[in-house]
Amino acid sequence: EKGGWPSFMDKEIHEDPEAVANTLLGRFDEQGDIVLDEVHIGLDVFRQIDKIIVVACGTASYAGMVAKYAIEHWVRIPVEVELAHEFRYRDPILTPRTLVVAISQSGETMDTLMALRHAREQGSRVLAICNTQGASIPRESDAVLYTHAGPEIAVASTKAFVAQIVAAYLLGLYLAQVKGTMYRDEIRHILEQLKGMPEKIQWVLDNQAGNVEQAAKQMVNAHSFLFLGRHVGYPVALEGALKLKEIAYTFTEGFAAGELKHGPIALVDAGEPVVVIVPSARGRNILHNKVISGIEEVKARGAYTIAVAELGDPDVEQYADVVFWRPVCPTLLSPLVDVVPLQLFAMDMAQLKGYDVDKPRNLAKSVTVE
Ligand code: BG6
Predict the structure, then answer these.
(1) How far does residue 63's CA lie from ligand 1's centre (Å)?
(2) Is-catalytic flag, 365?
(3) DSSP-assigned states of every residue in 354-368
(4) CA-CA distance, 279 to 229, in Å (whole number)?
(5) Interatomic CA distance for residues 209 and 217, integer angstroms
(6) How many whole angstroms from 115 Cα to the centroid of ligand 1?
(7) Could you tell me the pTM of the whole model?
(8) Which positions fall inside the SIS domain (predicted)?
(9) What is the position in ligand 1's atom list of the atom closest to the CA of 164?
């Protein structure tokens, strides 16, 4: 049951740290090598994989988009991410060396199931990343990597999203290990950093919920929102936007920050709320400056700006009306913390509007029709 929380969504957001910790549990040995015992695909097959295609819908597809940045960087093979319902109907290029990764919380999404059937018919291997033991998608896949987020009841996915990112990252590190594209020490180092993430997520829950609530109160009557991010912040922007659509019924557009000047800036008018995921300023990150100048642009047009930014960011406060702070963490792991205030924000908005946050209108937890 809800265990004292006002909604399942509230409870499940507060289980984000645990979902990350539990998904990591038992996935590495004492030496810090990744062990994916439950994945019954041979080492020789893994070594031959030369392309990954992630198929998923909704939130799960955004977890796949996050993973693309990490896996391509670590394993040096192309990773495509495709909405499952588009995949099957465009004659995708599939070979026995293609690994199709089907990501699904429920494991019952028909679009995703049909996509994986198609991939297997074409001779590709399918690995499922799933949160539900024994569901159709894992049953029909060649291998499964379960997320251990625990049952997710609220229709809008929260803790499953962070767990899906962790599982996909474990898969990426495992591939890097078997293909030898990374040094063992590097893999161990990233594992250590992953193990530190639950604490950082907890920090956000403990220290940023107040800011988030304030921003929600301020913006509760806004008719539309724009969310923008770059690099791994891009799928986080898409996910933040989706949450707001799903439960607060607010017209929201998420896009890549670099696209601003190619169109969406035309939407920005006085008072328009714009949420920006700001990359870390550390290491003279060039993307930091570019995203900051994006905030500057919208601010100059009178936007109300909400930034998700790293503690100690030297520039953000100058342009942002509100900042949701993230503790310092490696860029590739930042989506695990950055999505948390956005989950809270959507929930607060929905609550303030008097909506049922657990059961939004027109939506089902798992969509078992195509
Ligand atoms: C949608 C849900 O219908 O399915 C989303 O409303 C969810 O919240 C999507 O992200 C995919 O679901 P699953 O179970 O395949 O991860």
Answers:
(1) 12
(2) yes
(3) T--SSS-TT--SS--
(4) 8
(5) 12
(6) 15
(7) 0.97
(8) 42-181, 215-360
(9) 16
